[in-house]
Amino acid sequence: MRCYWDGEDVWFYFEVDAEGWVTRQVELQGLERTPIAAASLDEWQQAHEAGHLDEYDSRFGITAEPPVSEWEGHAPERMTSEEFEEVWGPARRQIASRAR
Fold first, then answer.
1. Pair 15, 29: CB distance under 8 Å
2. Which ranges are annotated Basic and acidic residues under compositional bias (predicted)?
């Protein structure tokens, strides 16, 4: 799913599991749709367990909480998993290639 927040000119793309928890999230900002986040819940949890959470957050961002079913005032558009992957792959590569 995806939604646009015009206050910050950001497109948010979400992959969610069966219970509505965000498992991966991409944030693209501005006319150029510059990737500012491409976070994975699994990776975030691994970074937390390894004591590298600050490094992960500053580089890739975090996923949204609570589950989508509890969001108020948002009406995200549905998208296919293929459409999400088309956004995830390039955004993730661009963020990962940036100097730390």
1. no
2. 71-81
